[in-house]
Amino acid sequence: MSSILGSACAGMTAASKQAEVAAQNIVNIGNTGEAGKNEAYKALEAVQTTNSDGTPDVSVQERNPSTVVIAAPGSPLAGIGGLVESPNVELATEMVNQHIAVNNYKASVKMFEIWDEMQKTTLDIAS
Fold first, then answer.
1. Each residue of 50-100: pLDDT tens digit?
2. Which of 26, 60, 66, 113 is 20–30 Å from 46 (CA)?
3. 29 and 89 Cβ atoms separated by less than 8 Å
4. Measuring CA to CA, which residue among 37, 54, 47, 52 is closest to residue 14?
5. Quick one: which of 19, 44, 14 has its CA closest to 29?
């Protein structure tokens, strides 16, 4: 039974990290820099893998490419040609990633609830 709890905890941790990365990207979506100066926020992504014991593991790395050059001639950071470096973040994608992370978290919480029901049933049978 403890493997159920371990899987649920690992799932909750993974979902939390995914939501955290999406939130960081959303918050920093407007942090631009002068093109070519490497000053803009670098977009992150959460990469989920499965450990040998079947539990999820999430690592955070820079998105490739982490920044893009866009035209913003009115920006005080605009360089030659009115270009700025901007994080490679799309709001819609990050919102979807957040929604997926929340649903993954809820699924892990449901594992705790099922484990609790199983424990109650076991105690009822034993008594």
1. 888 877 889 999 999 999 999 988 888 888 889 999 999 999 999 999 999
2. 113
3. yes
4. 47
5. 44
What percent of the chain shows pLDDT beyond 90? 59
Phi and psi, residue 62, nearest 5°: -70, 140
What distance in Å separates the CA atoms of residue 68 and residue 12, rounded to the nearest whole number? 32
Can you tell me the distance from the alpha carbon of 110 to that of 34, in angstroms, rounded to the nearest whole number?
47
CA distance 14 to 26: 19
Retrieve residue 113's tokens. Answer: 């609830």
CB-count burial class (<10 Å; 0-12, 13-18, 19+) for 112: middle
The tokens describing 88, both together, are: 């490679």
For residues 64-80, one letter each, b for 16 or more C-beta atoms within 10 angstroms of the residue's C-beta and e for the rest, the string is eebbebeebeebebbbe
Distance CA 120, CA 1 (A): 13
**Cα angle 99-101-103, degrees, rounded to a multiple of 5:** 70
pTM of the predicted structure, to 2 decimals: 0.85
Q: Where are the domains of the chain?
A: 2-126
